[in-house]
Every structure is written in C-alpha cells, then in structure tokens.
Design a protein that fits this description.
The protein is an alpha+beta fold. The chain has a single domain, classed as Thiol Ester Dehydrase, Chain A, CATH 3.10.129. Helices cover 18% and strands 38% of the residues. The chain contains two helices and six strands; from the N terminus they run H-E-E-H-E-E-E-E. The chain has a six-stranded antiparallel sheet with strand order 1-2-4-5-6-3, with helices on one face. Strand 4 and strand 5 form a beta hairpin. The mean pLDDT is 94. It comes from Pseudoxanthomonas sacheonensis. It holds the Pfam family ApeP-like. InterPro entries: ApeP-like_dehydratase, HotDog_dom_sf. This is Hotdog family 3-hydroxylacyl-ACP dehydratase.
C-alpha cells in the first residue's frame, strides 16, 4: 500500500534508520507494516554482529511515526514532530531477531491522544509468533516550532 520511499518521505528517519519497508494497511486507529531488514549485516542497530530484540521498541516507535504521518496527510497537513518519552509494559519474547527468516510484521494502534501527546500499543510478530509488545508515549511539538 505504501513503499519504503513513501515512508521515508513522512518520517525523520532516513536510509538504514528507516526500519519499515512497507505499510500493509492502515486506518485512523491502527496501522500494519512489514520489514525484512533485520538480517542485514549493515543494520544500523546491530552490535557485536547481532540485532537484539530490545530494538523492536524502535520499530514500534517508527510505526507510530508512520501512522502519524499518514493521518496528518489525510487531513491535508504535516505530522507534528514527536519525542519518544516513555515505553511501558514492554515484553520481549525472544532475545535476538537477526537470524529470523522472512519479514517482521507490526500492528500499532492509538490508545490515547491529546493536543500534545499520543500513546500507542504495538505488537511485532514473525511468522505469526509474537516477538515484542508494549506501549509507547510521544510528546508532540507544533509543526514549525523550534
């Protein structure tokens, strides 16, 4: 539904730090995305030649950013820049993700939002198995604010 290039145009993360390859579907409350970059030797979050499951929190946060960009675009505007301020209830069901064959899949949904903040739940799966889940809160800046 939406390509990596289109995703990069909406979020501040570029190149290898843009973690999602495609948006599968979305509506005003939720988004589903897919990525197949977790095995890459050049993945920017790798350390000691491994990609730890804790980095799935960044995948979840970027899912929020993509969803915010899509929602803003649907309203005819730009998304407000956000700052991740909290992760809660994070559960990691694996230790590493770099050897998993096939794509990672994410669902993220809006739980609460106000003028200056948003809270989402995210779940990341591989081949139907839940890898990580949690909630993330973002503080939003007004578009054009310093």
């Amino acid at each position: 539904m939406l390509s990596r290039e289109q995703i990069e145009a909406m979020i501040p993360h570029k190149g290898g730090m843009c973690l999602w390859d495609e948006v599968v579907e979305w509506d005003a409350r939720r988004i589903a995305l897919r990525a197949d970059n977790h095995r890459g030797a050049a993945h920017p979050l790798r350390s000691q030649d491994r990609l730890r499951a804790v980095h799935l929190c960044e995948y979840g946060a970027q899912a929020m950013a993509v969803h915010g960009g899509l929602r803003a675009r649907a309203r005819g505007g730009d998304a407000s820049p956000g700052l991740l301020v909290a992760l809660r209830g994070v559960q990691l069901h694996v230790s590493y993700i770099d050897a998993l064959p096939g794509a990672l899949e994410c669902e993220a949904e809006v739980l609460a939002e106000g003028e200056g903040s948003q809270q989402y739940a995210f779940r990341i799966r591989h081949a139907g198995d839940l890898l990580a889940e949690g909630r993330a809160a973002v503080m939003l800046q007004a578009v054009g604010a310093a």
